[in-house]
C-alpha cells in the first residue's frame, strides 16, 4: 500500500505543479468609452504572459489569461464580469480600470484574491485606507487622478523656469462632469491657489459627454484669451474632435493641455496633423528610456500600427509584478501573494 501511495504521489504532484496559474482580465469589448485602453492593457498582459511562458513559466507553471467582457458604465455590469472570474477560480485579477471602482473591489475582497488595477482613482485609494484588512490584496498600480491637476501646474512652473514666457498667467479649465474629471479639476484649482499668484484661475467651462459641438467652447476660450488652457476630458475621439475644431480658430499664443486622451491610438489616428502643438500628460506612460524603448519596439513588432502609450506598458508590468510574487508565494495563498507584492 505504501508503495502504491508513493507511486500515486509521484504521478499527482507533477500534474498539480503543471496546472496553469490563471489571471482574470476583465476587458471592455464594446461601448462608448474605454475599449481602446482596455485592449491596450490586454495586449500588454498577453505580451508578458507569452514572454514568461516562453522562459518556462513560474516555477514550471504556465500562465493563462481568462478574458471576459465588462460593462464599465454600470455597477451591475462591473460586478458580473468580476464575479464570473472570481467564481471561475482565477488566481489574480488584472484590470486596466473600473470607472465605478467599489463594486469591482468588493467582489475581489470577498475572497481576498489579489486584484491589481490602474483605476487612477483617489476614491480607490481612500477605499483601501478605509478598511485595509478587507482590501488588503488590492493594489492600484498607478497614482490617483489628482496628479493630472497638480502635476500640470508643476509642469507649467518648470517650463517657465526653463525659459518659457506665457502671454499671461491665467488658466482656463474645460471640465467634463464625471467624478474622475471633477477630481482633476479641483486638484488643478487647488494647485493654482497654492501657487501664490504665479498662476491665476481663469474661467471654468462645463462640458457634457458626448460633446456634440466644440465650436462654442472654442469661441469662449478665444474670448477669454487665457495664456493656458486645460481640456479636462479623457475620451480620445472627443479630444481629437476638439483638436480639429480648435486649430480652425485657436486662442493666439495659448498653451493647450489635453488630459490623457492623446496617449490612445484613436486620438492620433483621428486627429492627424491637427494633433501638433498640444501638450498632454499621463501618470503611467511608457517611457522612451532604454527599457521603455525596448518594450515599444517589441510591442510594435507584435501589434503593428499606432501604439497606445499608457495601458500597454502597465498591463505588461502588472503581470511581471504578479509573476515575481508567485516565484515565492503559492498562487492559491492569496494573503501570501499580497504580502509578496507589498514587498516588491
User: What is the overall number of helices?
Assistant: 13
Secondary structure category: alpha/beta
Distance between the termini: 45 Å
How many extended strands? 10
Physical arrangement of strands within the biggest beta sheet: 2-1-3-4-5
* Strand proportion: 5-15%
The oligomeric state is single chain
Radius of gyration over alpha carbons?
Answer: 23 Å
Q: Major beta sheet, specifics?
A: 5 strands, parallel
Low-confidence stretches are: 1-15
Secondary-structure element pattern, one letter each = HEHEHEHEHEHEHEHEHEHEHHH
How would the global form be characterised? elongated
Average pLDDT score: 94
Helix content: 40-55%
What does it look like?
With 344 residues, the chain is α/β, with parallel strands linked by helices. The chain is built from 13 helices and ten strands. The protein has helices at residues 2-17, 35-54, 75-87, 101-111, 122-130, 146-161, 179-194, 215-224, 236-246, 265-271, 290-302, 311-328, 334-343; strands spanning 21-26, 63-68, 92-95, 115-117, 138-140, 170-175, 200-206, 228-232, 255-259, 279-281. The strands form two sheets. The chain has a five-stranded parallel sheet with strand order 2-1-3-4-5, sandwiched between helices. A five-stranded parallel sheet has the order 7-6-8-9-10, sandwiched between helices. Helix 3 runs parallel beside helix 4, helix 6 packs parallel to helix 7 and helix 12 (311-328) packs across helix 13 (334-343). Residues 1-15 have low confidence and may be disordered.
Amino acid at each position: 500500500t505504501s508503495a502504491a501511495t508513493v507511486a500515486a504521489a509521484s504521478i499527482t504532484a507533477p500534474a498539480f505543479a503543471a496546472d496553469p496559474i490563471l489571471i482574470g482580465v476583465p476587458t471592455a469589448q464594446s461601448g462608448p468609452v474605454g475599449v481602446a485602453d482596455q485592449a491596450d492593457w490586454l495586449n500588454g498582459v498577453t505580451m508578458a504572459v507569452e514572454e514568461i511562458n516562453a522562459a518556462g513559466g513560474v516555477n514550471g507553471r504556465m500562465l493563462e489569461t481568462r478574458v471576459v467582457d465588462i460593462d464599465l458604465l454600470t455597477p451591475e455590469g462591473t460586478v458580473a464580469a468580476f464575479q464570473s472570474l472570481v467564481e471561475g477560480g482565477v488566481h489574480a485579477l488584472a484590470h486596466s480600470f473600473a470607472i465605478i471602482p467599489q463594486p469591482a473591489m468588493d467582489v475581489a475582497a470577498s475572497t481576498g484574491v489579489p486584484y491589481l488595477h490602474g483605476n487612477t482613482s483617489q476614491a480607490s485609494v481612500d477605499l483601501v485606507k478605509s478598511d485595509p484588512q478587507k482590501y488588503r490584496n488590492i493594489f492600484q498600480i498607478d497614482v490617483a487622478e489628482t496628479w493630472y491637476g497638480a502635476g500640470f501646474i508643476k509642469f507649467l512652473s518648470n517650463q517657465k523656469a526653463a525659459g518659457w514666457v506665457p502671454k499671461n498667467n491665467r488658466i482656463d479649465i474645460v471640465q467634463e462632469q464625471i467624478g474622475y474629471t471633477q477630481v482633476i479639476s479641483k486638484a488643478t484649482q487647488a494647485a493654482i491657489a497654492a501657487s501664490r499668484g504665479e498662476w491665476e484661475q481663469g474661467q471654468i467651462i462645463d462640458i457634457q459627454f458626448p460633446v456634440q459641438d466644440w465650436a462654442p467652447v472654442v469661441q469662449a476660450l478665444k474670448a477669454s484669451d487665457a495664456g493656458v488652457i486645460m481640456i479636462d476630458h479623457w475620451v480620445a475621439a472627443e479630444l481629437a474632435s476638439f483638436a480639429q475644431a480648435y486649430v480652425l480658430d485657436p486662442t493666439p499664443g495659448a498653451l493647450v493641455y489635453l488630459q490623457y486622451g492623446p496617449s490612445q491610438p484613436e486620438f492620433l489616428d483621428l486627429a492627424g496633423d491637427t494633433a501638433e502643438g498640444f501638450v498632454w500628460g499621463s501618470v503611467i506612460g511608457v517611457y522612451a528610456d532604454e527599457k521603455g524603448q525596448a518594450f515599444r519596439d517589441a510591442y510594435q513588432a507584435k501589434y503593428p500600427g499606432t501604439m497606445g502609450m499608457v495601458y500597454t506598458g502597465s498591463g505588461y508590468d502588472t503581470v511581471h509584478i504578479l509573476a515575481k510574487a508567485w516565484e515565492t508565494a503559492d498562487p492559491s495563498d492569496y494573503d501570501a501573494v499580497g504580502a509578496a507584492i507589498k514587498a516588491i
